[in-house]
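User: I'm writing a tutorial on reading structure tokens. Could you give me a worked example: one chain, its sequence, then its tokens, then a sentence or two explaining what the tokens reveal?
Assistant: Sure. Here is the example chain.
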Amino acid sequence: MALLIIPMTCFGSTLATSQPCQTPDDFVAATSPGHIMIGGLFAIHEKMLSSEDYPRRPEIQKCVGFEISIFLQALAMIHSIEMINNSPLLSGVTLGYEIYDTCTEVTVAMAATLRFLSKLNCSRETMEFKCDYSSYMPRVKAVIGAGYSEITMAVSRMLNLQLMPQVSYESTAEILSDKIRFPSFLRTVPSDFYQTKAMAHLIQKSGWNWIGIIATDDDYGRLALNTFAVQIAANNVCIAFKEVLPAFLSDNTIEIRINETLEKIIAEAQLLDVLKNVTFTDEGNSFHFDAHGDMNTGYDVVLWKEINGHMTITKMAQYDLKNDVFIITDQETKNEFRNLKQIQSKFFKECSPGQMKKTTRSQHICCYECVNCPENHYSNQTDMDHCLLCNNETHWAPVRSTRCFEKEVEYLNWNDSLAILLLALSLLGILFVLAIGIIFTRNLNTPVVKSSGGLLVCYVILLCHFLNFASTGFFIGEPQDFTCKTRQTLFGVSFTLCISCILMKSLKILLAFSFDPKLQNFLKCLYKPILIIFTCTGIQVVICTIWLIFAAPAVEENVSLPRVIILECEEGSVLAFGTMLGYIAILAFICFIFAFKGRKLPEHYNEAKFITFGMLIYFIAWITFIPVYATTFGKYLPAVEIIVILISNYGILCCTFFPKCYVILCKQETNTKSAFLKMIYSYSSHTASSLAISHVSLDSTNSSITMTDPSSGGRSAAWQEGKDLQAQAFAHICRENATRVSKILPRKRSSSI
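And here are its predicted structure tokens:
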């Protein structure tokens, strides 16, 4: 009891002080000499009065508001030191203490810290400035305190200068675990990180998502508030309000365990290192400081409950910060803990998977509504703040989806109804080609077959049609690099060869029935069948070869559609593709011009007229193809090109061979040599008569012109040329009217064909 009288007297003198202190000893709460001095910082008073002087003077003011709980903590420190001094633990060494009242004020604590750091056994209590404090002997060797984290941080930054050990009994701010900024700080309570983590865990287990937070306006309260807000936000808990109270409104009902860390203090030189490695037991529990200087203690979960107007506090569980679990001691408290879930602290019902929370325009940020996830988004948990995006290249999701679905790979399959129809048309075309080949082979020596250029030319054209029909098969089925390269090349080369052969036929017909000498001479110079066919086809082969070498078509996955992946052939080079088709179009146009000029040939020999129709069908099909191909999208894009190939191929095949097959099969009487000679004789006579009449008209016109202007030499020359042509035409007619000569003329025409 005598040990308690001195500090009480000192405290009493502090309370009785009505004037600001004049010397450092005036604000010492309790002191006792010893070989090793230990400092103490306790907020025995609630606050410090503000100065009423003006201007304000730099002096420590009077403290008011006695805190009995903190006073008992200071007595506990004194009692612990006296017990150590009265024990054989430190033989020959006495511990002393200097305890200061911080008045819950950083300024007062800093003044006390300056005295702690002053030089030992110096007449003047001053702190020396040094670059190295290794040999410096301060007034005290260690400091117990302070309680508030804000004060502790300020004090610790000054004690770091000399690496003086500081052990706090209440400061729990998370930042104090940072050993870079606070290397000499230790504490006997856990960090706020674990406290806020335990609170967040308790709220989650209780099923609450609508809470309010009250914190003190100091470093301890603000840092804990920020940490707690982050942790509960991760659990989708909404903060209804945040209330910050003045720091001096502390809760006096919460008892802090008295620290017994200093029971085994030894040599002063290694004090900080020893403190970090101290381990002691209490009621069977082992305690020690971790690498951050935090004590491995937990928390008590207490329940405040009002019964009959009286507030009772019941310990419900203990929080184990190492394992992040609540330890419940008995069944009764377990039931109380379970009853927390019955307390409704929710603003809205949970948003189900497939939905997300959308903040509404209300006065509070926590007001929200549940909306469905849009297409290609999903949510697989309740109360998600936002929906997750599916990988649009490989997956998709419908509206209000809880997961992503893998996209289906699509292409023009063999089982597709349109593909079957197109294949049937291609096979029908191939059957037509084979049937025509058989018909022409069996009627090899008939005039119709001979007039078609002979069996070899017909076979080449029919082979091209066969390859064109066969090329459509490469547009169907799962695209491969080989099929992508083959289909366009096969079609381009075979179709070019077909058009080249038809071009030679048109040129040959025009040459056979042309009576214009100048045109005949030009056509004879141009007519080189083998050379022209190989040249025209060779140019297309070169175009396709360059295409395959530098920008070959390849398989590509088109992922732009929302639910499917289109497996298609990417042409590699649009320029090369267009060049191939454009070259065919140029040949077809030349063929069309030649055929158009020979459209008025004998009725049963008039291939040119049908070639003209075939080329028109080709142009109409491919001109229509360009906008349709550019606007079609999806797996049916290859079907568009198949349809155009079939139309153009059928058009040319039908116009070239069907009329001849009709004559061979249905009008056999016209498919004779005599019928052809008669038809050619009639055509030649009609053509010569027309030519003579036109020149007679020209002669009459020129005569009138000559009479008008007899001096014109050019007009007379034109008239004379017309007279010569007229004479040739009449002579030609006369020759064809003769019986024997008429037999020779058709032979010459037939041989030329």
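What the tokens reveal: The longest helix spans residues 673-708. The longest strand covers residues 310-320.
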